[in-house]
User: Fold these one by one.
Assistant:
Number 1:
Amino acid sequence: MTEFWVGTSWKMTKTLAQAREFARGVGARADWPVRPFVVPPATALAAVAAELGPASPVRVGAQDAHWEDAGAWTGEVSVPQVADAGATMLEIGHSERREYFGETDERVNLKVLAAVRHGLLPLICVGESAEVRRAGGAAEFVADQVRAALAGVPAGVPVLIAYEPIWAIGATGRPARPEAVAEMAVVIAAAAGTRAAVLYGGSVNLGNAVELARVPGIGGLFIGRAAWEVSDYLCIADAVGDLVA
Ligand code: PGA
């Protein structure tokens, strides 16, 4: 079960000093019972990658990147740029980007294709709103997001898909019930094909990580707030690691 992913996105937090401290904390560990990854802000990518070193089992991801390789796109960074800074994964389509920064399914797809073109592992975030779930349309909505994200991606290219229902994310969120996560894992796997590992994200913490990691069809956890302290991240990785070992 070493294929079980446990990662954290730092979103818009951490100074360089804080990012390096976290990287030192995870870098100090040699044996991992899970596949660890961290997703720093763009400002800290190079520092974290340098601190970890190229042989580290801890993968580094970027939180977003533009679909073009270079050009006049003020404020953006490209996939080759984040790869140059040390990222080997690319988070794409987080609901905060979809909601606040106009990220559409079309753009998500362009970014997935750019990541694949440059050999980065896409970490595609999908998930429905509370309204969509209440109306009974969650499965169809999420399947559509997955199919749109993967359009034109050759079969067999590995991808990670994080199921992150919008109502489960952040300080006002509540984690999805394991049964709901299990149902959605089936929906996502069917829409994506066999190449995808399905992760769960949204209010994961030390108290619920093991229960969520046990959900059939779930191949990883993607954590925000509860893993921003390196000791907390390591505790969750260990708890899940005990389960999957
Ligand atoms: P959270 O964030 O764990 O803080 O709810 C999860 C996410 O946005 O991936």
Number 2:
Amino acid sequence: MPRDGRSRPVAYLTRRHTDAVEAAFAEHFDVSVNVGDVPRGQPELIRAMDHCDVMVPIVGDPFDELLFHHAPYRATLIANIGVGFNHIDLSAAARAGIAVTNTPDVLTDDTADIAIALILMATRRLGEGERLVRANRWHGLAPTHHLGHTLRGRTLGIVGYGRIGRAVADRARAFGLTVRWTGRAGGHTPPDDEMAPSLDALLETSDIVTLHAPATPDTQHLMNVERLARMKPGSILINTARGSLVDERALADSLRAGHLFAAGLDVHEHEPKITSALMGMENVVLLPHLGSATEETRTAMGLRALENALQWLAGKPPRDRVI
Ligand code: DGY
């Protein structure tokens, strides 16, 4: 129950959500939505924490130490819509007595699909081809123009073999890729996929490296100058996890020097800003954080956050409690 004894609790949605999600929240809550649909800054989050029972943010909403410093708040739960919660300072939330939930599982397939899309785009130079056509610079098929590389027979190195990493592996095998993996593993490990003895060994032996590790202090710039140099000449880096895993200036240098053939990024180090060195490069695919961007999945994520919020308000342990 809300602390002030009102009959309906109040939820603050930091962005618009699908009609199904907003309607479902409205069945149970008085809902306050940031209809402007762009981040409104921390002062707004602090105000909302004071007026709502449940905060419903997304990646990029900064719930940092400074915000929790203003506790106590009326809000007792941050029901994040998203599996990643690196934008929430968990220790500070715990100290302030605020619980946090996320939305795992429901976005696994869509995110794995985007990783595969990026692998295809980067390997076959699809973004570059599309730009060529739209600029009226295509003069017909020429056998030596615009050559990419064949996927079948190559090795895909997966960094982080959890739900999404394994879903990428499932798809990759159908393209004839051999899968190696390293990092945290969760669940069943298909016998065909080989565990690399170390990250360096994986980088040295993979034609394509795809990142599926969470953003933590340990994974900050996991792909730094040295690690990028360890990747095979002519290989490809894919990132659908979090931008902080890659030192993007070092990545731009590696692409410019021709050490890497291409990169595909759905997430960015300074999101939503794009590292300027990457902007003009033909051999990097840049997507606007589309991993979970389908009507179905965004709805499932929102409903999962609602389920967590309702369990919390009913005094039950939420299904996806992070802290
Ligand atoms: C997640 O769930 O963490 C995605 O990156 C945002 O949709």
